Amino acid sequence: MPPPAAAPARRPASRPESRPAARRPPLRLFEATPRRRSSRLPGRRAQLLVSGALVLGSLLAVVVGDTMVAQGQVRLSGLQSQVNAAEVAQKAAQSAVAQLAAPTRVVAQGIRFGLSAPAQVVDLPQVPLGVPLRAPGTVAPSNTRSAGTPATAPPTR
Q1: How many helices (H) and strands (E) are present in the chain, helices listed first?
Q2: Which of 40-49, 87-96, 126-135 has the highest mean pLDDT?
């Protein structure tokens, strides 16, 4: 059978009764208090200054290095042009020496100074400079001395 409609609903007995609602504190407007400067700020500022100085110093070092390299390249190109000019002058001087040392010119100069021309010219064989020469033959000094030569006299040649 269904319970009567007018009967009040009962709560189960195992549930404790609800407590009264706790009172909330009244709401108020939040006003931020001015912050004191943090003690870490000077350290952070010092770190920023040091890192900025390091960055600027490294950039300055790179610029100085590039400048030194560029100056070295300019000096090197100047020296290379001087070397090229000296090589040209050396080749011209070698050519002049070769013309002055030509056998026909030497003979003509000798005749001009009153020398006679040779009847026959003999060319000497060319000797290779890379081959070592054999040691010259030497004679061993004799142990016998003549009665008239002193013991400290240097050997005669």
Answers
A1: 2, 0
A2: 87-96
Distance CA 75, CA 83 (A): 12
Choice between 5 and 79, residue whose per-residue pLDDT is larger: 79
Distance CA 102, CA 107 (A): 9
Angle value at C-alpha 65, between 61 and 68, nearest 5 degrees: 140
Domain parsing of the chain, residue ranges: 43-112
DSSP element (H, E) containing 89: helix 41-100
Contact 120, 134 (CB under 8 A): no
Q: How much is the pTM?
A: 0.41
Question: What are residue 75's phi and psi, to 5 degrees?
Answer: -65, -40
**What pLDDT sits at residue 39?**
58
